[in-house]
Amino acid sequence: LALYFHSGEREEKCIIEDIPSDTLVIGEYKVQRWDIHKQDFLESAPGLGMFVTVTTPFDEILLSKLYGPQGRFSFTSYLSGEHTICLQSNSTRFVAFAGSKLRIHLDIRVGEHFLDESVLQAKDKVNEVNFRLEHLIEQIHHIAKEQNYEREREEKFRKTSEETNSNILWWAIVQTLILISIGIWQIKSLRDFFISKKLV
Prior knowledge:
Blueprint: E1 2-8, E2 12-19, E3 23-35, E4 40-41, E5 50-55, E6 61-67, E7 70-77, E8 81-89, E9 101-110, H1 117-120, H2 125-196
Antiparallel strand pairs: 1-9, 2-8, 3-4, 3-7, 3-9, 5-6, 5-8
């Protein structure tokens, strides 16, 4: 997932990632600050740092750390589900005066270790092949883990659907029995009324 978004200096921005358990997540970001004179975003924002906070689906904090204007963070999920990744600048200016606009470039990589270019350029081709094989095996493990997670979600959804269908069926049966009971009661009441009035 690679994206960029705009944010105020003191504004917190969050994204939600659905991550399987025991999965490594690596995030890289770069902050640019709006320059009024140039009417463009500067290449970097020196002196400005970012608080990165990661929470689990049960609102437990996995990571909470201050980084520089450009940084890399990583964490390993221990639960399956939607993890929230939030970024907020460490600007010391009051909210009323922190009007500077920021552009944050964010790249999130889920479940794989990325190839190191220095290793790829190594002279020893055997080591390079071994490294690539390890990388492929790691990717296969990650894909298998994601498939298992999707299977669990599908099974959970199927159980919920079956329970809902069962409840609807029982509710329809109860409604039918109530309508039949009311019908029988109305017929009996009318019959008793006609007998009491000697119309039958």
